[in-house]
Design goal:
Rossmann fold; 8-stranded mixed β-sheet; 8 strands; globular
Length: 288
């Protein structure tokens, strides 16, 4: 059996004290170990941002990508070799601004990998600029007079696209995150996991305690049906007083991207196994 220690790295963490990334990192390691996935069997894809500073803090195959662009990379990796568990990580800044098109089309295509959105409602790595999820009116480093744009609620966007798996969790609850991550990994299709993350340095409005007093798991609701999209949309709307976490929506019948490819139906090999070398000398000679 694999254990968490197999994922430990000798690199020192550089996050601020009490950053939610510590809990997320621990939960991912616990989830992978509990599912007996070895470091050599997983690809961890990190975007740019505070969370991305953890790319070398975990012993596994990992990639540190471009800002807002980690989703297409993870999609390619997941398609190329289905035998490897692929997990991508991104912040609310890069994912919901320059990378929002990739999120939309990853959901539409239903690529078979897990995406963890670190939502701390600011660009923490660049010292607290407002992001798409920063509360309207809040004074931030780049918005000294207050944020004027409407606040984007990520889950509302995701659910409007009819995903196959949509969940929320909270960076202050290790066990809950571990459970959600394991369910996301098990799901065949694009697993969207939004982590409500505390940022002790730049986001003073929604600290750890603020979330801890407001979150509740939808599994505690009587007769909650995670296959009911309209119900999921309803419970996802409140992000101020009673904030729903857990698996909000699950569609087990929606086929993932690779399964829809008619050209791959009878092929047993992985795409990565079909890569060959080709002599392009004749083509190059034409341009000399």
């Amino acid at each position: 059996m694999c254990n968490c220690a197999a994922y430990n790295s000798d690199e020192l963490y550089t996050w601020c004290t009490n950053c939610g990334n510590y809990g997320i990192h621990a939960s991912i390691k616990r989830a992978l170990a509990d599912k007996n996935i070895k470091p050599s069997e997983v690809l961890l894809c990190f975007d740019i941002g505070c969370h991305g500073n953890g790319a070398d803090k975990i012993n596994a195959y990992s990639v540190h990508g471009l800002h807002g662009r980690i989703l297409p990379f993870a999609a390619g990796a997941a398609i190329a070799n289905k035998a490897v568990t692929t997990i991508a990580f991104g912040g609310d800044g890069g994912t919901l601004s320059e990378g929002i098109n990739h999120l939309i089309h990853s959901i539409r295509a239903n690529y078979n990998f897990t995406f963890v959105l670190h939502d701390n409602s600011n660009y923490g790595l660049t010292t607290g600029q407002a992001s798409a999820t920063t509360k309207q009116g809040l004074e931030m480093n780049s918005s000294p007079s207050g944020v004027t744009s409407d606040t984007l609620i990520p889950m509302e966007l995701v659910l409007s696209l009819k995903p196959s798996f949509a969940a929320r969790t909270f960076s202050g609850n290790i066990k809950h995150m571990e459970s959600i991550f394991k369910q996301a990994i098990e799901h065949e299709g694009f697993s969207y996991v939004e982590v409500l993350q505390s940022c002790p340095t730049y986001n003073k409005v929604t600290p750890h305690e603020w979330y801890a007093q407001r979150v509740y798991d939808v599994s505690t609701l009587e007769d909650y049906d995670s296959s009911d999209l309209e119900l999921a949309r309803k419970v996802a709307q409140d992000v101020q007083d009673k904030i729903a976490i857990g698996v909000l929506y699950l569609n087990k019948d929606k086929k993932d991207y690779y399964s829809r490819l008619a050209s791959r139906k009878s092929i047993k090999t992985e795409l990565v196994e079909e890569v060959k070398g080709y002599n392009v000398g004749n083509i190059i000679d034409k341009f000399r």
